[in-house]
């Protein structure tokens, strides 16, 4: 068992933070390229308020216009029922709810407390269940919060257990501002593993501090085998000051492959998608 899955989040987590309003056809072209890279899951849409994140306002069109490839699940963020209903209409294959382990970021990102966010997610879980759509759960600020400082591992573990109990099939642990170091990731994971088995966890590490690969290595040692990454190292989070740059998919792929892990991804397609992503953000897509 030397397999690791990379969950591509570039078209969502990457592009949501780009200043230039990227035309829908450029997003569709990027996703269509990524569909040939060997990913099982690609996050391409976010049904949030267009006033909050204008870049994602065309999410329904992106989902409708891509060439769907068998074996690939196309995912979308859905913070509430409005978002879920739009995702269902546009035929997202899976959706995600997203909470924060810190109160400060919960308020900045969702305009409510952690407890209130879980109350708002409950009907989303129920409706997704009725529609037969898998739901992933994100936790932001698993190591540090831009507003509240270091996050206690127990807070992450509690929330991870709550999201699992609500029915999330996997919990993605976000180092939203890329400030984590392996020792802190290790402590956080030890706490979370008391609540959620490693096979239902993913690492979502931003590379702002250049430590994402080291944090992936620490997570591999704890049994985590899924990592989120964004092609071309796109993006960040509009509500987390300093959260520039998801760890680059092609970098994670090269590093994992060099360490003897198999990702099932095609290096040449990744390189092509990374070029497209970088051109898009320079306005040359
Ligand atoms: P709110 O203002 O508290 O909510 O926003 P509201 O229910 O009062 O709605 C306000 C307006 O938004 C209303 O419209 C609603 O209809 C509309 P108005 O009457 O003013 O014209 N609205 C919506 N429109 C479209 N789609 C929807 C939707 N919901 C309400 N789904 C809300 C609450 C959650 C909507 C808002 O706070 C929001 O959109 N937040 C999203 C912020 C966001 O997208 N952040 C980035 C994604 S998270 C992330 O990147 C972290 C992650 O990568 C992991 C990591 O790195 O840590 C996942
Ligand atoms: Mg993120």
Automatic annotation (TrEMBL):
Signal peptide (UniProt feature, chain positions): none
Assigned keywords, A-Z: Lyase, Metal-binding
Bilayer-spanning residue ranges: none
Molecular function (Gene Ontology), one example: metal ion binding
Residues in Pyruvate carboxyltransferase domain copies: 4-271
Keyword Lyase: yes
GO BP annotations, alphabetical order: ketone body biosynthetic process; L-leucine catabolic process
UniProt family annotation: Belongs to the HMG-CoA lyase family.
Protein name: Hydroxymethylglutaryl-CoA lyase
Organism of provenance: Roseinatronobacter bogoriensis subsp. barguzinensis
């Amino acid at each position: 068992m030397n397999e690791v899955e990379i969950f591509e989040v570039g078209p969502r987590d990457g592009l949501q933070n780009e200043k230039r309003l990227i035309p829908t056809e450029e997003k569709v072209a990027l996703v269509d390229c990524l569909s040939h890279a060997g990913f099982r899951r690609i996050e391409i849409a976010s049904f949030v308020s267009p006033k909050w994140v204008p870049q994602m306002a065309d999410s329904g069109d992106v989902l409708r216009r891509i060439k769907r490839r068998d074996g690939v699940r196309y995912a979308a963020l859905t913070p509430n029922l409005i978002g879920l209903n739009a995702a269902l209409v546009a035929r997202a294959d899976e959706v995600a709810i997203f909470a924060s382990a810190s109160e400060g970021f919960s308020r900045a990102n969702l305009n409510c407390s952690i407890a209130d966010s879980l109350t708002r997610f409950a009907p989303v879980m129920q409706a997704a269940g009725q529609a037969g759509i898998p739901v992933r759960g994100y936790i932001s600020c698993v190591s540090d919060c831009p507003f509240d400082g270091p996050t206690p591992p127990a807070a992450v573990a509690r929330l991870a257990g709550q999201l699992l109990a609500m029915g999330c099939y996997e919990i993605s642990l976000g180092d939203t501002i890329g400030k984590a170091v392996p020792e802190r990731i290790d402590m956080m994971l030890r706490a979370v593993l008391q609540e959620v088995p490693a096979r239902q966890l993913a690492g979502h590490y931003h590379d702002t501090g250049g430590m994402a690969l080291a944090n992936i290595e620490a997570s591999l040692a704890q049994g985590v085998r899924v990592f989120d990454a964004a092609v071309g190292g796109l993006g960040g989070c509009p509500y987390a000051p300093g959260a520039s740059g998801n760890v680059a998919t092609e970098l994670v792929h090269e590093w994992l492959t060099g360490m003897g892990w198999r990702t099932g991804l095609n290096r040449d397609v990744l390189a092509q998608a990374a070029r497209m992503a970088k051109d898009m953000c320079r306005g040359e897509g």
